[in-house]
Amino acid sequence: MRPSTYRKQGRWDDAEKLEVQVMETSKTKLGVDHPDTLTSMANLTSTLWNQGRWDDVEKLEVQVMETSKTKLGVDHPSTLTSMNNLAFTWKGNGKEIEAVRIMEKCVQRYKRILGCNHPDSISCCTA
After folding, report:
1. Long-range contacts of 76-79 (CB under 8 A, 24+ apart)
2. For 62-102, how does the pLDDT look when each residue is reduced to its tens digit (9 = 90+)?
3. What is the Cα–Cα distance from 47 to 26, expressed in whole angstroms?
4. Which fold has domain 3-125?
5. How many degrees, rounded to 5, is the angle at CA 40 between CA 69 and CA 92?
6. Which domain of life is it from (predicted)?
7. Which of 6, 53, 69, 73 is the most buried if burial means most Cβ atoms within 10 Å?
8. Do the Cβ atoms of 45 and 60 come closer than 8 Å?
9. What pLDDT does 8 receive?
């Protein structure tokens, strides 16, 4: 089965096990900073989120964001998505000041790179 199938069924432990396996294999075969590895890490955060494992989510999201900044650049759409994801995690965990700071950076970059009317820019602004 695919991790997304387990997630849809609410089988969080099974999804996590498979996502960790995919992530580790990606790290080994593609490298820790490969975009597909970063995507697998981001997918794992979704499962951890649903398990209420906020510290693990935050740690992984920071890693994805920092690696994306280094590998893809601070203005790359994938980096901006990772920043936005981290901001929502911080917002949900009561870290309002940090969340607002990163959301403001994210919104500015989305608007500059993609324009004010792009769906990602609009989505980021409605956080």
Report:
1. 77/113, 77/114, 77/120, 78/35, 78/38
2. 999 999 999 999 999 899 989 989 999 999 889 999 999 99
3. 18
4. 1.25.40
5. 70
6. Eukaryota
7. 6
8. yes
9. 82
**Domain extent listing, the chain:** 3-125
The residues near 86 (Cβ < 8 Å, ≥ 6 apart) are 58, 61, 62, 65, 102
Tell me how far CA of residue 100 lies from CA of 10, 12, 64, 96, 123, in angstroms: 31, 30, 19, 6, 15
According to DSSP H, which parts of 51-125 are helical?
A: 54-72, 77-92, 96-114, 119-125
Amino acid 126: pLDDT = 58
